[in-house]
Fold this protein.
Amino acid sequence: MTDRLASTKPLSLHAGCIIIGECGVLIMGASGSGKSQLAIKLMQRARQQKRFAALVSDDRTLVSVLHGQNGDHLIARPHLEVAGLIERRGSGLIKTMHEACARIDLVIELQKEPPSRMPDPENQTISLAGLSRPRILCSLACDDPAVVALGLDLWAETVIT
């Protein structure tokens, strides 16, 4: 049996996607919430730690389901019009190297309000295209990107070990 993409039309999300190590991270949030800033900071931090980091998409992401021998996966791809571009506040759109796609392992959702100290279990996952993924809620107005990166590292440790 070979892997195949679902025949349904991909979801078009106002989101970005990066790869850190082997983990695909979808970053969702309203316009101006800091998605691009967080993506850049997380990639910079990973590279400083000598880990692989790459942009997949910024601002507009296509999400589809891949049916494979090892289960179903969410796949992120950039919209063709913005592939390889990322917004750097104050500089506009800049061209950068990017990957064509990534498997989504984790969703970081930026919101205006800080997340609750003890989140409800149902808020720790999100369903996209019928598949559930772990979710970290945060607010860049309250959370430094380094704190979010630490949360990402702690999440990866619990999944990998």
